[in-house]
Amino acid sequence: MNKMTTYSLALLVVLSILAGCGKEEAVPSTSPAASATTTATPNTATSTTSPVTTATASPQTSAKPVQNPSASPKASSTPSKSDGLQVIAKPESVTVLVNKQFSLPSSYEPTDLVYPDIPFTFAEKIEKRKMRSVAAEAIEKLVAGAKKDGINIAGVSAYRSYATQKSLFQRYVQKDGEEKAKMYSAVPGTSEHETGLAIDVSGSDGKCAAEDCFGGTKEANWLEKHVQEYGFVIRYPKGKEKITGYQYEPWHIRYVGVDTAKDMVAKKMTMEEYYNAVPVSK
């Protein structure tokens, strides 16, 4: 009886131990495996999709605008008119590039226009006698310098408002047709005269004023040699018609400042070339 009791007790102990071991193995074998699979999937999606897309998209988007400033003239901006012209952001700049691609705002009017103390080919004190103060001072020095060399320079036409340029251009179109008019006159907004920094000049007798016959005169020859000393350049030089978009105009000079003028003349460059702007087509 004691043996049977002992055997029974021993059997119960063994069965109890075996049953306990079965429960502890069953719980971890199911739970951790399922948990690992669930957490691995979201982490993989987050780390391989989101960061890569963000990293590659951002730099490509921000790289494009950086190229624009280097392709454009320093004094110019990117807003465009419906006719394809680029509207200048800083029209008051002394080195502003105004041509068939870059237009002044139609509302622009210089705030420092004055009457330079030089002779003109007319007596009236009207709009086209004005220049911006810095250019007026420079043209006074130029005329005085020419006089010392025995050359008498007179003004023919300086500042023009947008309205004046519009009226003038329309008159030329009626006379010669638009294509021909564009070779010697500017569409309103694109004339250098509207900056107050340009002036057409001639000899004091007014002969060949703003005409081809001015080329080769003693006044034209003096200007070609000396304008840069006073901060001016001959804006539309001979042989550069395809770049400037205008015929040779030895009478049209433009103030850009002494340092810039001397550098441009030394390099034999137009403003389009100097500022690395896209050449103007006819």
UniProtKB/TrEMBL annotation:
This is M15 family metallopeptidase. It holds the Pfam family VanY. Residues 1-19 form the signal peptide. Residues 26-85 are annotated as: Disordered. Keywords: Signal. It comes from Paenibacillus chondroitinus. InterPro entries: DD-CPase-like, VanY-like_core_dom, VanY/YodJ_core_dom, Zn_M74/Hedgehog-like. Residues 27-82 have a biased composition (Low complexity). Residues 129-257 form the D-alanyl-D-alanine carboxypeptidase-like core domain. PANTHER family: D-ALANYL-D-ALANINE CARBOXYPEPTIDASE, PEPTIDOGLYCAN L-ALANYL-D-GLUTAMATE ENDOPEPTIDASE CWLK.
